[in-house]
## 1
Amino acid sequence: MSPVPPIPTSLEDVRIKLLPANGYYIADFISLEEEEGLLNKIEAAPKPRWKQLAHRRLQTWPSDLTRDTLLQCLLPKWLVEPIATRLLACPASTADPQSHIFSTSPHAAPNHVLINQYQPGEGIMPHKDGAAYHPVVCTVSLGSSLVLDVYGTNEDGTRETEPRFRILQEPRSLLITTGELYTDYLHGIAEVHEDVNLGPDTVSNWDLLRSPELIVDGKLQRSTRTSLTYRDVKKVVKLGGKFAIFGKS
Ligand SMILES: O=C(O)CCC(=O)C(=O)O
């Protein structure tokens, strides 16, 4: 069994220094066994859980938002343990070891998870995540590496054509984007079979990667990549009294 990776002393130790405020990257956030367990749970979900989109497929937990609002419902245990628990155990700063990345979010914890699955050649158009969520996104990657492109905007409000930053996400890694990086920049995944031109000058988190040696001639072939994005939806409504919904494992 591979050991459960240690949590960094503080997110300050894993900040991606080349990015605007703020991005963090932990190369080894979950173990190989935890990755396999999560992939098994995701595959075991009932078929209607998957929404087939044009260039990826998607599961939404605990449910879709309606007018930016979540119907209160607990996340299933397999989405809480190990990822959410570990997110909350990771100190945001050494000065305040009790603080974590969701300390100042409305529910002080993530309450929503999107699971995106991409085959090689698939991706997601550059976009912003919008105002429904507190501006923190925690993404755990499973199965394959790929590059997340980060775009700025021109003065007229249109998107810049070339990515301003590129973040390489390895399997079992955690990427956190927050602050200005969340509100002012767009992110997307190119629809390619292979990420190219990868190196210390083009990849913002190069110094934090687990296995840069796997990149040969600046290239990395993609295989099936599954991501789990944890967020805190700001508006939550209760379906009160005896109709309350409880989470299932
Ligand atoms: O799969 C990813 O890493 C990105 C997903 C994404 O952009 C989103 O859910 O808004």
## 2
Amino acid sequence: MRQFPAFFNMHDASVVVFGGGEEARRKVRLLAATPARITVIVSQIDPGFAEEFAGRITIAPPDHAGPALDIARFAIVANRLDVNADKAITMARQYGVPLNVVDRPDLCDFTVPSIIDRGDVVAAIGTSGSAPVLAKSIREKLEALLPQRIGDLAALARRLRPDARTAIPDSKARRRFWERALTGPAADLAYAGDLEGAEAEMRAQLRPGAPVRGIVHLVGAGPGDPELLTLKALRLIQEADIVYYDRLVSDAIIALIRRDADRVPVGKSKGDHSVPQETIHEWLIASAREGKRVVRLKGGDPFIFGRGGEELEAVRAAGVDAQVVPGISSALGCAAAAGLPLTHRDHAQSLTFVTGHAKEGGVPDLDWTALARPAQTVVVFMGVGTSAAIAENIIRAGRAPSTPVAVIENGTRANEIRVYGTLSELPHLIQRAGIKGPALLVIGEVAGLPEEAIAHAFKEQVA
Ligand SMILES: C[S@@+](CC[C@H](N)C(=O)[O-])C[C@H]1O[C@@H](n2cnc3c(N)ncnc32)[C@H](O)[C@@H]1O
């Protein structure tokens, strides 16, 4: 370690920046996020500089640098190309002020790291001045891992620290309290923006003998490709104590679950509800009541044909905290993978999602007249087994038999299959390709737009 990381306390601090150009401006932008008083020493200043930091900086000419340096916690020389740079460096040294010279690590007492600013939580990445671009790329990766509101959580912890010290005098017990508070339900509430709830939860946990509370997250796992998970979904999957997952969640996503977490498959494919819905509700509630962080992982989006609504209702009715994390619905994921725009100004002004599977099995009672209207796209979920009846009903209600259709099985996964044709041939397309599902039926002119669809139509014409 050639450099030792440390954080300057900026409360009641003064800092000096030499320079009025772009480099100085970048440094002042960083400093302006702190409470420090900032003096900018310039002989020349770029237009707009003073206005950008109006009320936040004091601008002074070089012959006023002495008094500013006298009280400065540190100084930054950011006028590299300016003839005054050498003078600024000499002066700062005379005053014994720690010094950073932009792009000259050899002249620096300290370097300014790449920073992630989440309020009270600040992450700094340094490369000892050898590769700032590398620091930037590491920062980008870390950005994705740090919840946006982690700074709010830290600020809440700072406020509660004195109360925690009084309520739990034993330091080991207090550390256990903080571990729970900063990773458990209180943290989840803070990350969801409910700071009052988070504070109430932390205070409740400070009471002697307080029961440990769990939480249920209904998380959308997307259509299969793990790269289509949201950042929040990934974080929750990796933090969960127990994960209940559907058959539709891909193996690649299951592999992301923490190794020591319990994994419980709850089946739920069409017509094969291996664990009854009520039992799933009971298990979710029981696990949360044991104080666990429960993730209920569902294919696509939990609120699109996913029974997420029922689960949310049941869990909340039992007095257990529950939150929902949206996922990329298979309709969106499959369409994107196929290059098939679900709406298009020339072809489809509306988009309808329907289920092809009635609650008690068979063909659902849909509004076929509405589904047959032109200039719309209809996406049918769970419609493989009923495709013949669906095509027949929509054609009978007036949609042209030649309307393009696409059938996408296992969309976004390695074993994805896509077939194209017309509405009248829909069941044959499915049969010929041996499609069993999970698959989506996309009905409408947009299904004829992908290059594959055009190539297919051309081949059919020639044959
Ligand atoms: C119970 S629904 C769940 C839908 C899910 N909540 C969503 O937003 O995608 C199951 C149906 O979603 C569709 N589906 C889910 N994942 C799919 C995938 N990777 N490729 C094609 N269709 C998929 C199929 O129609 C499947 O029968």
